[in-house]
């Protein structure tokens, strides 16, 4: 059996397992989704959103791209955020990066990466914003790990800049934006402790889209 064919065998076994645990599992799953969480993460195959959070299908609305970027001209991620906030009423938005991110490392290599150049330039911009701090880290591995963290924080800020998030929070008290990093070496999530309320306040000095 090929790895491709094995997928369908795995799927059948998984479906049967869910039904053994709960005969109404798929009936309930097919009705609607009401996730509390929007997860924006890296496309890296080693970081599966639901599994690392210990949550089931239907609990997490997920968007993934190379290096977990939130680019304001990327209609894909902007549509996901708007739908999650305005239609699904998610309570939390999580940007999750991971140590050892190939996209972050590639962005700092002096190499022409073709179509990836404009995408990864967003990470180079993060380095530029924090150049003094990053250049002060002598250990290369630790420097890249810190860039992973700073990239997550900057992408979280980009979410807070959006009208959907600002208006929803001011009228309903949610969603709250969080910044996480996943450590592939031990499987542990690290909360970077983004101060959402203070960050929103600071953001609105320039990016206020609510007049409130």
From TrEMBL:
It catalyses: hydrogencarbonate + H(+) = CO2 + H2O. GO terms for molecular function: carbonate dehydratase activity; zinc ion binding. SMART domains: Pro_CA. It is an enzyme of class 4 (lyase). GO terms for cellular component: cytoplasm. Its EC number is 4.2.1.1. Its cofactor is Zn(2+). GO terms for biological process: carbon utilization; cellular response to carbon dioxide; cellular response to oxidative stress. Zn(2+) binds at residues 42, 44, 98, 101. PANTHER family: CARBONIC ANHYDRASE. Belongs to the beta-class carbonic anhydrase family. This is Carbonic anhydrase 2.
């Amino acid at each position: 059996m090929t790895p491709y064919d094995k997928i369908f065998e795995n799927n059948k076994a998984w479906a049967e397992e869910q039904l053994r645990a709960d005969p109404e599992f798929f009936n309930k799953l097919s009705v609607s989704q009401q996730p509390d969480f929007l997860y924006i993460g890296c496309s890296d195959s080693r970081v599966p959103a639901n599994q690392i959070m210990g949550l089931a299908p239907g609990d997490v609305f997920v968007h993934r791209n190379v290096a977990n970027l939130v680019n304001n001209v990327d209609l894909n991620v902007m549509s996901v955020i708007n739908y999650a906030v305005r239609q699904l009423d998610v309570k939390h938005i999580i940007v999750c990066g991971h140590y050892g991110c190939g996209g972050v490392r590639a962005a700092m290599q002096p190499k022409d990466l073709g179509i990836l150049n404009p995408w990864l330039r967003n990470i180079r911009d993060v380095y530029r914003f924090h150049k003094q701090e990053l250049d002060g880290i002598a250990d290369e591995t630790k420097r890249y790990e810190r860039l992973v963290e700073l990239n997550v924080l900057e992408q979280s800020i980009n979410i807070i800049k959006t009208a959907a998030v600002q208006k929803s929070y001011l009228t309903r008290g949610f969603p709250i934006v969080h910044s996480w990093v996943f450590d592939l070496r031990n499987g542990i999530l690290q909360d970077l402790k983004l101060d959402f309320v203070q960050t929103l306040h600071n953001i609105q000095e320039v990016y206020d889209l609510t007049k409130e």
